[in-house]
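Query protein
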Amino acid sequence: MKRTITCLLVSLCCILYLSAQEASNQNSLEDQFTDVIDKSNSYQDFKVIKKVKINRLKQNVLDSVASLESRIDTLSGHIASQDSEISSLNQTLESTKSELATSREKEDGIFLFGMLLSKSTYNTILWSVIGILLLLLIVFIMRYRTSNSVTRSANAKLAEVEAEFEGHRQRSLEREQQIRRKLQDELNKQKKA
């Protein structure tokens, strides 16, 4: 009895081993088609194929097609998700580029009176204003000096004129006093006479 069980077990292992090798040999559909065609019988110009083999082949083909279709669906979904991710990344990239351009424009510019000016324009305006103010300062200093010298000479002439006037007034007063004395002397002479 033990021998019978041992023989059965050895036979079963051999059968399983052979069927596993056959299954591994028939992994691809092309191998399965070749196997079906090669193991079929010929009758005149026709090939006679066992229904079991053709049904197994059909089932394997359908399983392979279903597997490929599910894989195609999975990959299509994956591609669609990657496309949407790429489009969102492109939008993010575009917004980042526009923010970068705005940031660079602000970095390269200066706000003056509510307007964004480039630094070179700002420097040109600033130095032009400084130059004009310096030119006006020089003009005002020159005019001040001219006016100051004119004022000094006018004050000097005024002082001269005032001195002359004072001298003329003194002389006039002296002449007037002399004329009054003479008049008084004449009046006194006429009173006496």
